[in-house]
Amino acid sequence: MIKRTADKLFRWFCHPDFYPDIKGDLEEIYKDRVDQKRNLTQVRYALDVFLLFRISLLRPIFKNSMIKDTGMFRNYFKISFRNLMKHKGYTAINVIGVAVGLAAFLLINQYIRFERSYDSFHKDPESIYRLTTDQVVDGQLGTRDAMSFNPSGKIITEEIPEVNAHTLTYNIGSQTIRKGESLINEESVKMADEHFINFFGHTVISGDPKTMLEEPNSIVLTESKARFYFGEEDAVGKTLHLYSSFDEDFKVTGVVRDIPLNTHFKFDMLISISSIKDVLEREGWNAFNYYTYLRIDDGTDIAMLEEKLIPIKNKYLNEGSSLFFNLQPIQDIHLNSSMTFEIEESGSKDAINFLEIISIFILVIAWVNYVNLSTAKAIDRAKEVGLRKVIGAGKKQLRMQFLVEAFLINVIGALVALIIAQIAAPAFNSLVDTPILGDLWKDLTFLKLLGLFTVVGTIISGFYPATFLSNFKIISVLKGKFRNSKSGVGLRKGLVVLQFATSIVLIACTLIVIRQVRYMKSMDKGMNTEQVVAFGNPETMPGDDDKYEEMMGVFKDRLLKESSITSVATSSIIPGGESDEIWSTSGGVKIVGLTDRLEATTYIQVVDNQYFELLDISFIDGRNFIKDNLLDDTTAVIVNQAFLDRFNLADQNVLNEKIQFGRDPENDKYNIIGVIKDANRTSLKKSTEPTCYFYDKVQINSLVKLSPKNVAIGLKKIDEIWSEMFPTATLEYSFIDDRFDRLYKEDRRFGAVFSVFSGFALLVAILGLFGLISFIASQRTKEVGVRKVLGASEPHIVGLFYREFIILIGVAALIGVPIVFFGMNSWLDNYAYRINFPWEVIIVAMVVVIICSLITVSARVLKVASLNPANTLKYE
Amino acid sequence: MKKYQLGEFEEIVLLTVGVLYNEAYGVAIKEEIESRLKRKVSVGALQSALRRMEKKGYLDSRQGEANEKRGGKPKRYFTITAYGTEALKYSQDVRTQLWNAIPEVALELKAV
């Protein structure tokens, strides 16, 4: 048995010239061993065979190859290679087409995979859910909030058996940390409880995962941060001083592996949430400012589980509260959710799906090109095919020949694609603003996909030309009467229409995205943010509010003395921030005597009397706060139009009416002293938030308006005065205009990705067009000759060809325009402030496509039109 | 530049082919080497050396008779070519020269 298998193996790999006598030797030795009654003779035989596997004894790869029936393969490759070298132009177009298409497809694919992989690397990601809070009024789903109450995770885990673990986190925001002489601002700092590390399964490099977040004032660093602050030494046991928020020492208790980019919960530092224990206890079931994650048993019905959460909410929240607990799978957070107070701006599922479709289109267009070009070449190959058939080639062999050719094009294309992708990788990374591409030739999934699509591409793009070309009739071909059949033309035109339609759609979409972004940037926000600089004030010194207020007053006065500074204001938030920066209340609000309590989120901002003036926010009714009018203005409130609109009170006089929050009739009442015009605090994607403005002399942020001519001097002065008065604190200022700009980053990125890939699609489509026009031109050479003999002029002939392509583009537009209209209209609907569907964009897109294609057509047709009819017609 | 390329194992095989004269085929060579040198020779190593030397032109081969014991497969007999003999001579000469060049003292010391 073993011997027989070994024999087969030997016969397969051994050079056939050597096989008989070596086999004889083996046989003789085997028999000798059997005669000598040695044991394990068969195994020894197999061992001998194994030792015979030597390069000098191997079968050669091509001639008498180890693979069966490959005698012709070498020939196929040889002929294919010669053919490709003979038509260098065609080969180049084909290779570039395939390479560009493949590169674009794979790059987009890489990006899509990255976006879809969010939060999939955690331990058992399917069982992790985030506890979020929905507001439901009269069965209507209102605001969906990503946050939850801080005790809820613990209570739910205790009371519901299906929930077996929980962790509580808080996004504390940036912290200032001292390193040597300099102060460093750490942007990505979160807080978490002691379950966090094991809950998500973060890899711990140093420290005890169970206890590292237990003690108050503990801090866990990522590997790179630990190296940044403490070099190669073990960071555990060292201390860091956090200036903002705490002004206390924190003990490093652990170091974890750096957090991958594809998670919504990114952090460089993690502070134990017990450090704010008093806040947690005070807020309890009154405020939901925390992110809670739960681990739920596999196979649990989530809808049923949410039902079970209702009694819990009824027990701990007020009876009849409009807030409901909701469970959200962690992998849905990035692409599948649009909640307020999200940790980071989430991605757009539509954009990703759209990109995927584009990428497939680009790839298909590239393959279609190959089909077009190679069938267009048919006339050149017809005689070759005929002769081969005469000599005895079968259809199968001819097909194989053309498939090998397609394979060579695809393989070379794939190599070029790899080079293109690698060169484009840095540009692509900055385009999508995430370093998702590294060295592609080391990326195994990328290479696998590249290989896969080379093979798939060979089959798809090679099959039709191979069948088409191998079906030629010998006799007609060799008689010289061969013409391309008409039947292929319809198909080829259809493919070109598809390419045009794709190009039109992509160009139009790009322009619409760019216009929408420009519209949002240029739209009147309801305030004037030019030359307004904003920065966070130094942290309050605990227990010394009066002194702090005094210092900030001095600071403000000193700023105002500078001629380069026109005004200074203070506010709880800086305009142009993310949606989660503003404070809010969901406890319901009413205007006493005028309306019922409205269960909806109301946003709250605290400002001083300078704020509205500084930003040019105009009053519709009433007055501004008056400084030091404490008696009145501590209970005064200014509201915006959106707030009144929600009560349908837009036209009514509400001055001196009272606003009351919550359900307790004993709650404070606030006197409305003014109504302001709506001003957009955040992205115009969202409509204006219904906001109440309260008064305070000093808040955590400052806004400074500089005089337009002295911006640089103004900034210098702020810096000087700041470092004189607050030497330990860092000044981090930004222009409000820049902040608003940053909000549209995602949309701009979408626009940029779009424009790049529509460029690719157009390029590939033009290559395809060149293929078709070459085909048609060569087919109609004789017709052109006859026309010229009969007196047609060159421009007339060129015009004939133009007309044909304009018709094709027209058909493409008929297909493309509805797609653009429906697709982009629904995209624009995502924006609270959107442009009307811009029809002129469609015309621009068509003009671009027409110009590009006419140039391409001219390049080929002018040559045909200028041929001497004597030459083209001499064989007739 | 080496004039003749002849490895140590190749030299042994080549010499053995010479020893066996007209009877040098795979198994015979293998057994001869094993009995004279008291070392194991695998079929693989032997065959690849034989084919290599045939390609280099040191050996010539002819097909012999088949028999039952060999599963009906013919023997392949190897003989040394003139070129092969030259290579062996050359190798021997080089060694003799080297022997002669060793100072007496070195050898005596070794003997002690």
From TrEMBL, chain A:
Main localization, broad class: membrane
GO MF term list: transmembrane transporter activity
Location in the cell: Cell membrane
InterPro entries for this protein: ABC3_permease_C, MacB_PCD, Macrolide_Exporter_MacB
Protein's name according to its UniProt entry: Putative ABC transport system permease protein
Ranges where the MacB-like periplasmic core domain occurs: 91-309
Topological category with respect to the lipid bilayer: Multi-pass membrane protein
The keyword Transmembrane helix is annotated on this UniProt entry: yes
From TrEMBL, chain B:
Pfam entry (one): PadR
InterPro entries xref list: Metal_resp_DNA-bind_regulator, Tscrpt_reg_PadR_N, WH-like_DNA-bd_sf, WH_DNA-bd_sf
Superkingdom, taxonomy of origin: Bacteria
UniProt-listed Gene3D superfamilies: Winged helix-like DNA-binding domain superfamily/Winged helix DNA-binding domain (1.10.10.10)
Residues covered by the Transcription regulator PadR N-terminal domain: 22-89
Stated name of the protein: Transcriptional regulator PadR-like family protein
